[in-house]
Amino acid sequence: MSTFIDECNLHVSAGDGGAGCVAFRREAHVSKGGPDGGDGGDGGSIWLVADRNVASLLAFRDYPHRKAPNGTHGGGSKRHGARGSDLDVTVPMGTVVLDHDTREPLADLVNNGDRWLAAQAGEGGRGNARFLSNYRRAPAFAEQGEHGEQRWLRLELKLLADVAIIGFPNVGKSTLISRISAAKPKIADYPFTTLEPNLGVVRTDDGFEMVLADIPGLIEGASEGRGLGHQFLRHVERAQVLLVLVDLAPWDGVAPHEQLQVLLGELGSYQPDLLDRPRLVVGSRADMAPGHSYDGLAVSSVTGSGISELIGALVGLVSESRAREPEATRTTIHRPVSGEIQLRRHDDGSWEVMGRAAQRAVALSDLTDDQALAYATERLQQLGVNTALARAGLRSGDEVRIGDFSFEYEEDS
User: Fold this and answer.
1) Are 131 and 139 in contact (CB under 8 A)?
2) Which of 71, 58, 50 shows the shortest CA–CA distance to 10?
3) For 131, 246, 270, 309, which has the most beta carbons within 10 A of its beta carbon?
């Protein structure tokens, strides 16, 4: 039996770019061979992709690391390195991506095919043939490959279901879903039998389909962490319709109206707008309480009493809800990478230059090589870094960091 996992950590590591090549032509009848080093190939990026065929986050429980291939290095004769292929990591529809440390929401992959760039590939370095110019006739330097992005992410799954079945433990949710769908949840006569949500598809004779989610039993205080229900309340968030089961033969003697009051209170405490969702309140286990005085719809999953009326009512509510919802469209979500130059001052008085173009100018250059250092300095000036530093009021001797490279700022004389 597979295990349902709805929370996990994921480490993504995009591929590194390949290094550019330093090479010169060596031809018998060419007196001065020029530079002909090829570029390194880009690494592969990592994308999270929502897939309707993936049911849970189980694949990440024991293997939380995903690594995309690196690009290969450039070669002589202007041979460019091969690009690392992108890696698509499939996740269930309804997966929410959070920053691991801050828990800031980054993406919400609701629809089948939704894509989100989880780790940006490193770009390949340029070979020395790319630095040939009128005043640089024999460039003896090339760029290094850029490192791919690495980060930890937090994934949380919110089930996508038309109907969420809610009730106290042992109220008959699992028995009901097994009666009206092909789902076969574990059923037993003790509290908290359901330790994970169960999904079932109900198909009517006219071809109508709806997905039901059996949410593990809630108890009073679930929204504050009591019992098991607090782990699964978020699975109710996306449901269009709430089916609230109240036990007509409760083992602890809590009357149906008192059960309903507690359940609605927990939903409202967790997320107030859940109380605005269409809901159907049904008395459960009617066969165990033959003399009940419940005046609403009562069902028995054992005898089948009231089941057809229940399905008909749910079909009506789900149909109305779907008619109000805009049609879902496939979306591609990109995480933008800022190319603008920005300055950040740290508490220690140092300055950091932000912006991918500036960071690439130093990260890909071998700054121990005089030609490469001169090119990086020229590139930073073209990007406006010097002007930005001067406008920010830096003084000679202030520390400036660009990526892993740091230097002391010198004012123009």
Assistant:
1) yes
2) 58
3) 246
CA dist., res. 92 & res. 157, Å (int) = 7
Q: What is the DSSP string of 15-53?
A: PPPPPP---B---TT-SS--B-PPPPPP---EEEEEETT
- Please check the confidence at residue 214 and state whether its pLDDT lies above 50: yes
For the entire predicted model, the pTM comes to 0.68
Q: Output Rg (C-alpha) for the chain, integer angstroms.
A: 31
The helix (run of H) or strand (run of E) holding residue 320 is helix 307-324
- Tokens describing residue 412: 């123009």
What is the DSSP code (8-state) at residue 292?
-
Report how far Cα 350 is from the mean position of its chain's Cα atoms: 34
The β-bridge relationship of strands 7-13 and 150-157 is antiparallel
DSSP β-ladder status, 279-284 and 332-333:
unpaired
Burial of 269 (0-12, 13-18, 19+ CB in 10 A): middle
Sign of CA dihedral 102, 105, 109, 110: positive
Measured in degrees and rounded to the nearest 5, phi and psi for residue 173 equal -65, -45
Q: Provide CB contacts within 8 A for 378, sequence distance 6+.
A: none
Instruction: State the first-to-last Cα distance of the chain, in angstroms, to the nearest integer.
Output: 74
State pLDDT tens for residues 302-318. 999 999 999 999 999 99
Phi/psi class of residue 76: alpha, beta or left (left: φ > 0; alpha: ψ in -120 to 50)? beta
- Quick one: which of 331, 365, 341, 311 has its CA closest to 144? 365
Phi and psi at residue 342, in whole multiples of 5°? -135, 150
Q: Please, are residues 32 and 72 in contact by the beta-carbon 8 Å criterion?
A: no
Query: Which amino acid is located at 43 in the chain?
Result: G
More confident call, 226 vs 403: 403
What three-state secondary structure class fits 322? helix
CA distance 404 to 161: 47
Percent composition of the chain: helix, strand, coil (DSSP 3-state, to 5): 25, 25, 55
Is 118 within 8 Å of 97 (Cβ atoms)?
A: yes
165: Cα separation from own chain's centroid: 26
The predicted-structure confidence for 61-103, as pLDDT tens digits, reads as follows 889 999 999 999 999 999 999 999 999 999 988 899 999 999 8
SS3 228: coil
Whole-angstrom distance, CA of residue 81 vs CA of residue 236: 49
CA dihedral of 255, 257, 261, 264, whole degrees rounded to 10: 110
Give the lowest-confidence range in 92-101, 134-143, 199-208, 382-391: 199-208
